[in-house]
Fold these 2 entries.
Entry 1:
Amino acid sequence: MIINVNKISEKGYALNDSTELDNSHLIEEGSFFLDGVDYQVLFKRQDQRIQAQGNIQTAISLVCVRCLEQFELKIHSRFDIILFPKELVEQRSTALDEDDLEYIFYENDQIDLEKILVEQVNLFIPFKPVCRSECKGICPSCGANLNRGACPCDQAKNEIKFLFEKVKR
Ligand SMILES: [Zn+2]
Ligand SMILES: [Zn+2]
């Protein structure tokens, strides 16, 4: 998915397509694509500066950090990014702070669209993914998924509490 910069005129260059991305691109451990990636991108060019505005839609499977079960995350992401040629970024980088170096760049007049799409998908993944905000997680002693109801430990705990209360009286 390489786009030659010369294809992009002043009026722009629009793409509307879908692709399959490899699971190895996903940074989140245990995650994988459940669907192909649909995308619409409009590239606009001003000399060497290229603006890419677009949308992507896909679905991925993630592991919930609380209950450790797989769940589906639908991705609908909009992006609006600016790309510069790498040569230009390297020239300027000496004068800039490290923090300012978050450029996206292209090399040899070629834009790697796959790289942009992969990055957008990864940006969409929450830092600590949970299957739903009320997820109860797993029991620390027996590992049961508490979303499916109380585990035996819960009952045992209640019994102990009950006995304890009895002793106190
Ligand atoms: Zn969960
Ligand atoms: Zn338990």
Entry 2:
Amino acid sequence: MATAVARKKSTPEIGATEPDAITKNAWKLRRAGGLKVLEATALENLGWLVHGFSTHPGGESKLPVASRHGERKKPERVLNLGFTDWDERDRVAENRRKFVRAIGAKKMRVVTLQQIHSDLIRRVDSMRPIDDALPGDAMFTREREFLLAVQTADCIPVLLADTRRRAVAAIHSGWRGTVRRIAAKTLGRMQMEFGTRPEDVVAAIGPGIGQCCYEVGSDVVREFHSQFRNAREWFDGPFDALASGENDPNWLPWLTMAPPGHPPPPPRVQLDLIAANRSILIDAGVSAENIFSSDYCTHCRGDLFFSYRRERATGRMLAAIGIC
Ligand SMILES: [Zn+2]
């Protein structure tokens, strides 16, 4: 019986070599204004847009020590870009100013949403003002001067650029958004409203929790199994058993002869959300060579990223894109 799942595809520890994509120059970790900003070269090269994925070094916020599991000794100044309970609004606002300046979007209007792990997609333009209380998990625009920004701390941020129509999108895709194909649906809205062709789209999949660290249970497996014929490819572990309910924790103790009251832990699998989002974009018509994934795992790389799974009370990163 498999109770522990073999770990594979672990991203490097601090000080080790960087993920493959970095060494191939598809991604760049750029220092700017005391911060480190992760950029996708393919988006950077377009020239008519600004973009960036934030990391936590620098900034004005003090992350509570207790949430660090002893990883760090004293409160550290971090770039928290989300208005979280533990942080002060002024500090977050100042952090956002720093980040926006660092990616060259000082004059742009930052647009964020009340993210709810949905497939709600908002078009942003001067006719439709958006405030940060509006629920949704993806935004797209063809107008200049809006910086579309999604907040993450393990979930997968996806940025899209239509190179022909000059339109952009920012998407928040956790497992719930992924199972609802939010990236493909955003592309669908851009096709409908702007005439975007998938073959003209460049996609950057930013840092999120890697398969190495993302254990999920049968609830998640069944949702993916019901939605995708190739879902099995994105899971490491006993996918079929969990999908079919054979290893349902309710009767597993009978099978393993565990004494009453001591059921073994239910088997777990590890989900590759990055591979799932990549596959969803390819199915929607985006060519594989135009999809760039940073391959950074937010859970492994505490030196750069916040991770909700690792810390619970943690900060938020921003993945932002806008037409300049
Ligand atoms: Zn990891």
